[in-house]
Amino acid sequence: MHSPLALQLRKDALVANYRGLARHAGTTTGAAVKADAYGLGAIEVTRALLHEGCRDFFVSTWNEAAELNFLPAGTLSVLHGFARMDEPRAGVRPVLVTPIQIAAWKQSSFSCEPCDVMIDTGMNRLGLDPSDLACFDGLTIHTLHSHLACADEDHRLNAIQLDRFRSLKNAISAERYSLANSAAIFLGSDYAFDLVRPGLALYGGIPRREARGFIAQVCTPRAQVIQLRRVSAGETVGYNATFTAPEDLIVAVINIGYADGYRRAFSSIGQAFFDELTLPVIGRVSMDLVTLDASAAPALKEGDWVDLDFDLERVSAQTGISQYEFLTGLGQRFERFWI
Ligand SMILES: *Cc1c(COP(=O)(O)O)cnc(C)c1O
What we know:
Layout: E1 5-9, H1 11-25, E2 28-29, E3 31-32, H2 34-38, H3 42-51, E4 57-59, H4 62-67, E5 76-78, E6 92-96, H5 99-107, E7 115-118, E8 141-145, H6 156-171, E9 176-180, H7 182-185, E10 195-196, E11 219-231, E12 236-237, E13 243-244, E14 249-254, E15 271-274, E16 277-280, E17 290-293, E18 305-308, H8 312-319, H9 323-328, E19 335-338
The chain binds pyridoxal-5'-phosphate.
The site of pyridoxal-5'-phosphate (PLP) has 11 residues, from helix 7.
């Protein structure tokens, strides 16, 4: 069925971002495709990057892994590890995160298979404590991971975590070592080790200013105009009458709202584009509707499509909402189409 809102996804941009990140990292480059590849569509993203030579994919849960059953053995890891209730799939590695998970893995029928391990080096979120080292005996560790808490900032914790990870590398034997997410790729080659695990930057996010110019926008929400109306000077537009027309305006009402992840924070802040023309969002963003000042685009008609501004770095700066939330918040009503 026809959908009045669409997410335009650029495969060339995704692939260029992957290549650019791999070149910059100078080491094996994987892809975090958890959360449906940050809302873009895990199957399509994974297929495109697999074709591009990527052989290391990361999801959070075994449910997410099940969706990617076309991946060759040894190319997928599950970041939340393995608990007794989980049903692992042969050829998919858990990233074990607790001593109890390690014990469960050792008792499972997969115990001889390689696994990954996540060690916490100072974030104090998910991962084994470096003092849990003893329980690694008997594991075949494929990749030893850690994760940085502040890679998107210049924070003293980055160097501290790097130091701790280097010590662990000497103490724990694994085939590969991996520390860097998107932002850490731009912290310098010290952080690259044997594998980097970008997510955000693949999908057009700018994790640090050093990434500007490197990363192309992948994803643009588009919506159809449902109605055009004239609003006279002094009239107000939308819920709670937060916008007053300073002069006579043409207002376009479009088929998108905060239920689609077009956040309410865009009220009177966001913008849309039609034929190179900029149409500012005026008034409140509603659940399913947004109102634009279309006075600059007299050619705009009912049924036309407009592009919403989704330059992640800019909209994040404008609204204070993280680039990650913008991507993962994109709703289910979009027709996702790859060009
Ligand atoms: C999500 C995730 C990544 C990717 O992070 P980005 O900041 O999106 O590049 C890398 N490593 C781990 C452990 C993750 O959970």
